[in-house]
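Homework help board

Subject: predicted structure for assignment chain

Our instructor gave us this sequence and asked us to write out the predicted structure in token form, then describe one feature. I got the tokens but I'm not sure how to describe them. Can anyone check?
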Amino acid sequence: MNAIPTHSGQTLTLVAQDGYRLGAVFYRAHGNETARIVVGSATGVPQGFYRRFAEFANARGYSVLTMDYRGVGASRPARLKGFEMSFLDWATLDLAAAVDHFAVDAMPLYLVGHSFGGHALGLLPNHERLAGAYLFGVGAGWHGWMPQPERTRIWLAWNVLLPVLTRLMGYMPWKSLGAGEDLPIGVHRDWRRWCGFPHYFFDDPAMAHIADVYARVRTPIVAANALDDLWALPRSRDAFVGGYRQAPLERRDVDAKKEGFGSLGHMGYFRQHAQPLWEEALAWFGTRAARTAQPSA
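My token output:
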């Protein structure tokens, strides 16, 4: 097991169980470390997007580990065309490696998940090492949960534009559409299929086992979704997080305008103006840690 790095902003390499090397960044807590956080990124979002959150948490006693999934950012191969992988590898191998790297002692370890990062929790082979998970913008991905005209736009992207472009390029040219980093063809193949179901892969006959996999999760969860998150409205979240049927689960509906954030959408949870949400997440972690630390009667 690798030792925990000792200074803020240190780049490091994680090695997944299959030997794939992953780019990561460790942000050390200021002062006494009270807990640790692993960030589970959204699909196609490089880890640098979460730097402000990591530094915010550092100032409050949390060490944070961010990482790029294989095929993205610092974990991208020299050539994306021809690079084969399963979408599930991001959780079962990549994020799992980050959890193992950070869970080296009795210090509480939490997950902050964004979109796919909330899917990943249920797929982790080591989810029992997490003391809690705070998830932002998790949804089932089905266009039918989205309002118009976003519903039609996404349907056209999945069924007309992206299949053609992906076939031509040999990978999913997500970046050229202004939606994130380019993605391996395996991510496109799996993501497109599962977004065709109202309950994502829980409805896929080929994934009949997945309900039992998620039912093993007992990690306490908060799932926060903005009312202006067109890709993951609360009804989309509820269609997915019902899979965590054995985990203590709180749902948080964020009215960004009413609560003074202006707007959040799907990406705003980790922009500077969302700091009150970060405070909520860290406060919840603190409550979990205090509850765990109480001596038994």
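Reply (TA_rk): Your tokens look well-formed. For the description, you could write something like this. Confidence is low (pLDDT under 50) at residues 1-7. That's the kind of observation they're looking for.
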